[in-house]
Amino acid sequence: MSPDDFLPPSVHRLTDGQPLRSSGLNILNAPKLQVTLTNEPKLVPAADAPDLAAHKIFTDHMVRARWSAVSGWATPEIVPHGPLVLQPSASVFITPHRVLKP
């Protein structure tokens, strides 16, 4: 199996069923990863810290990778922790509603 076998149907439609590598769209390229470190690192909590078990502690950084139907994947980045930007029409917001609907 290749990574293309795990792509959603929408990507296969955009690439006319051709493998992503031959579609002209950029692939997600980890060796091009750009890193921007935070200026305010937090102390690493003890393994038994109560806030850790309560999911109240977050990492200092997150991975960001933008994708577009025109060019494919942009250069992936590790950036300081910040807001997660999602379109209001993202299926993550719509699908649970459909599942719970009688």
UniProtKB/TrEMBL annotation:
InterPro entries: B_amino_transII, BCAT-like_N. It comes from the Eukaryota. Keywords: Pyridoxal phosphate. One of its GO terms (cellular component) is mitochondrion. One of its GO terms (molecular function) is branched-chain-amino-acid transaminase activity. GO terms for biological process: L-leucine biosynthetic process; L-valine biosynthetic process. Its cofactor is pyridoxal 5'-phosphate. The keyword Lipid metabolism does not apply. Belongs to the class-IV pyridoxal-phosphate-dependent aminotransferase family. PANTHER family: BRANCHED-CHAIN-AMINO-ACID AMINOTRANSFERASE, SUBGROUP IIII AMINOTRANSFERASE. This is Uncharacterized protein. It comes from Petromyces alliaceus (Aspergillus alliaceus). The lineage of its organism: Eukaryota, Fungi, Dikarya, Ascomycota, Pezizomycotina.
